[in-house]
Structure formats: structure tokens, C-alpha cells
Amino acid sequence: MNIKTQLNESMKDAMKSGDEVRKRTVRMVLAAVKQAEVDKRTELDDMAVIGLIQKEVKNRRESLEEAKKANRPDLIADNEAEIKVLEAFLPKAMPAEELRAIVLDAITETGAASPADMGKVMKIVMAKVAGRAPNDMISATVRELLQK
Fold first, then answer.
1. CATH architecture under which domain 96-147 falls
2. 3-state secondary structure the chain
3. CATH ID of 3-87, from 1.10.1510.10, 3.40.50.1980, 3.10.20.30, 2.30.38.10
4. Would the pTM of this model clear 0.70, i.e. be above it?
């Protein structure tokens, strides 16, 4: 079952059970998917949908930080609940050790020696990781290992 189908099923379940947070969150993700499909004039594959979900999670985390600064417990609770709903659709997170191993393999494969070669390494790592780790974590690991 692809992720768009899972999202639609989750929406139906949320409507039946009256789970407003899940319904609202999944509806926003489906709207983002639909908008991306209209913009690109093509149907999104699972990797693109995962990318959109990760983007939504990142937006919620940024909103969460702003809500904490503003001391708004209502917004903090809403954002945390939405993040929990969205993370259910993402693949299991990759352990940091596994990511480091993939990055090291990519560095050896490309012959990268300095941070200037980061683009080459990132291209290979992104293909292998395929949405199982956040992009900022990947780039931080690549940058750290190329500094040595």
C-alpha cells in the first residue's frame, strides 16, 4: 500500500472515530500532495510524498519552537500532536551509526577529500538513505566527516 493510500485510509478512520487532530493533519498533508501534483502535472511517487511529509514535520517543529518562545501551551500541544501523527507515515528513522557508515562509503566511493566535495557525497548518500533520515542530519554528518 503506497503512502497516499495510507493517508486517505487514515483520513477516513479519523473521520469515523472523530479524531480531529489526525483528520486536520492528514487533510493538510493531502492538500500539499495534491498541490504538488497539480504544480508538477504528474502523480507523486512515495519518495516525493515522504519528502512532503518531512517538510510538514519540519514546519511543525519550527512552529513548536516559536510557540515555546511565546509561551503558548495550546499551540505547543497542537504542534506536538500533529508531529506525532505525521511521524506515523514516515519510515523508521535510520540510526546515526548506519548513516555514518553510508556516508563513509560514499566518501570512499567518490574520493572526496574536503568540504568542497560535499555535493558529490550528498548525491550518493541521498539516493541510499531515501527519506529515512532528515536532510539536515545527513548534511551535518557529511560535513563533519569531510572536515576530518
1. Orthogonal Bundle (1.10)
2. CCHHHHHHHHHHHHHHHCCHHHHHHHHHHHHHHHHHHHHHCCCCCHHHHHHHHHHHHHHHHHHHHHHHHCCCHHHHHHHHHHHHHHHCCCCCCCCHHHHHHHHHHHHHHHCCCCHHHHHHHHHHHHHHHCCCCCHHHHHHHHHHHHHC
3. 1.10.1510.10
4. yes
